[in-house]
Amino acid sequence: MMSVMRKTQANARAAAKEASHERIVQAAARAIRRSGYDGTGVADIMKEAGLTHGAFYAHFESREAMLAEAADRAGAESNAFAARVVAAAPPEQALQALIQAYLSDEHLASIETGCPVSALGSEMPRQAPEVRRVATRRIKEMIDLVARQSPDWGQPAAHERALVTVAAMVGTLMLARAVDDPALSSALRSAVVSRFASSGA
């Protein structure tokens, strides 16, 4: 009986720790997109997660380890959204639907929950190797998702077009967020959507 109780208590503690860890990663994934890697402090993340600063090292060996998990989660969320957009559109319109959603007013305004590459791209070269590694893996997933929308998926040309498409999407959103002129921000995004539409993307 006592062993059953001890096992139940241990399971409850493990579940509580897992739930706390999940809250920290979710908070950090939002924070890095909102404030950047350098603007994301451990104390602020723990407070947002409803935990004490001292509890941090029960979950992560270092700030970089937390940032790597946060980058991975942010990338996974962004790619899952992209996959849902693609799945909801007819196959011949999937890529154009993705480009439109990525460059939409909604995504422009949703930096905290949107694509981490467009939010953090300029900071990536200065991050720890483990952060760059997970971010690179998620970028490759996005490129593969775009390539799979081509009739000639699996061929070098499809991969090359996907590289150009993803670079155009990310770069355009970064520029559209950087400028303080709403008309220019809109024009940048509209021009890229139109260009890909006319090219049959």
Can you put this structure into words, describing what you see?
The protein is an all-alpha fold and 201 residues long. The chain has a single domain, classed as Tetracycline Repressor, domain 2, CATH 1.10.357.10. 72% of the residues lie in helices and 0% in strands. It is built from 9 helices and no strands. It has helices at residues 2-35, 42-48, 63-88, 94-102, 105-109, 116-120, 129-147, 156-178, 182-198.
Layout of secondary structure:
Blueprint (H helix, E strand, L loop, with lengths): L1 H34 L6 H7 L14 H26 L5 H9 L2 H5 L6 H5 L8 H19 L8 H23 L3 H17 L3
What's the CATH H-level homologous superfamily? Answer: Tetracycline Repressor, domain 2
The top-level CATH class is Mainly Alpha
The CATH architecture can be given as Orthogonal Bundle
Overall residue-averaged pLDDT value: 91
Looking at how many chains there are and whether they match, the oligomeric state comes to single chain
Bulk shape: globular
